[in-house]
Design a protein that fits this description.
The structure is a homotrimer. By secondary structure, chain A is an alpha+beta fold. Chain A contains three helices and seven strands. Chain A has a single domain, classed as 60s Ribosomal Protein L30, Chain: A, CATH 3.30.1330. The radius of gyration of chain A is 14 Å and the shape is globular.
């Protein structure tokens, strides 16, 4: 197989970073965080809100490939504080379920890291989709 | 290709998280940790023991897809203390070799993170397999 | 499909760790760091220099599969200090652009971790390529 790489770039970091890359059936996404279209953090201090916005950004990238949340097979959640997840399981996993429109058919790995690239960010979601 | 997503779910977190997802030849696994079938931590304080149990859980997920440890192509070890690995290379990598039944034909990335989702956990192993 | 796994092993850790594994079109690489062929750290204290050396190691592994930097679709940067990246964007992303020979068509996720496996290391780059 020698399908061409398909690259999606938009937003404030477009010159340096691709938002997503598709090769064959696989779509890789850059880690998505809770920022709006201008790069401003949304939902500071509120993990469920950040989960909601991060997935809105994931969905936007997927859409540019003609893909949907249901195509996600794997995700890694890099969070700055596990307790913000474990202390609000209902809110946080509710926001996740809502983003997928159902109980997600996706793997998940949850890791607490020491920092994300902007101090207000509480979560970065790294997704792989297969169409 | 438009193979269907195949999803494996079992254990205490089955409603929210898939243990593994297969699409085409690729099998993604959620990060596996040293817990038994009831979600109780096994091998507290003993990295080699936790490696052993985490891989037992990896093998269990793979088996449900009809796959084996030998199908693993890539793994990331998220550990809470590199020294628990580097200070017992023989024990830890011995446990890994034993889990694979031979010197593993798999990539590895070793990262020290600030916490895993249960305090007694020393390692979370994130695997990708291709059949 | 049932292509065989192709495994590349060389260097000081060759017995325990594969440097790269190819299955079908996908090539997974172990996390690459700023060490030379003897395993000595290069560029201590200099993030741009470590980025350069880490990618030299990435390119070396890819080459053994007949692949190039342009085949990279996804990368995760695990760094010990985000500020070493954000405080020298021009130098660091310049070193990255130079390694790819152009603005990289690759996703990126940037994560600050608490430690890498040698104290002088500032970055570990985990790449996935598709040929």
């Amino acid at each position: 197989m020698s399908s061409k790489k398909e690259v999606v770039r938009f937003g404030p970091m477009a010159s340096a970073l691709a938002n997503g890359v598709r090769k064959g059936d696989a779509i890789y996404l850059s880690g998505q965080v809770s920022v709006d279209g201008e790069g401003q953090v949304v939902g500071a201090g509120d993990m469920a809100a950040q989960v909601r916005q991060a997935y809105a950004n994931v969905a936007e990238v997927l859409e540019k490939f003609g893909a949907t949340m249901d195509d996600i097979v794997d995700e890694t959640w890099f969070v700055t504080d596990n307790q913000a997840v474990l202390g609000d399981m209902k809110g946080v996993f509710g926001a996740r379920r809502e983003a997928f429109g159902k109980e997600p058919d996706a793997c998940q790995t949850l890791i607490q890291v020491s920092a994300l690239f902007m101090p207000e960010l509480m979560i970065e979601v790294k997704c792989i989709a297969h169409v």
